[in-house]
Amino acid sequence: MAFPHLQQPSFLLATLKADSTNKPFAQRCQDLVKVIEDFPAKELHVVFPWLVESIFGSLDGVLVGWNLRCLQGRVNPVEYSIAMEFLDPSGPMMKLVYKLQAEDYRFDFP
């Protein structure tokens, strides 16, 4: 099991965090798809906990994530479609999960 406080800082994670505040939603998703496809599990396991929190929000409510609860197809069909494709069972998020499972990475989430 990996312990985040013992790992060296990840340039990939730092870049994704910076992009999450600077790029529009569609571009961030495209970048995440490319990262998930191109990087090995060894580098992606550092990104995964942050990605889960950035999508679904934090338990304390400080981070709202992608605000999926309020995302509606009729109100914003483009963002809705992008989010649905990304989170689809055969989409990039689950491909990341499968890639990490194949390498036997484990995560503790509250």
From TrEMBL:
What is this entry's stated membrane topology? Single-pass membrane protein
The record's subcellular locations are:
Membrane
Look up keyword Transit peptide and say if it applies: no
Q: Name one GO biological process term.
A: glycerophospholipid catabolic process
Provide the Gene Ontology terms for cellular component. Answer: membrane
Its principal location? membrane
Q: Which Pfam families match?
A: mit_SMPDase
InterPro entries registered for this protein in UniProt: Sphingomy_SMPD4
At the top level of its lineage, which domain of life is listed? Eukaryota
Report the GO molecular function annotations.
Answer: sphingomyelin phosphodiesterase D activity
Entry keyword set: Membrane, Transmembrane, Transmembrane helix
Report the protein name in the record: Sphingomyelin phosphodiesterase 4
Natural source organism? Nannospalax galili (Northern Israeli blind subterranean mole rat)
Query: By which gene is this protein encoded?
Result: Smpd4
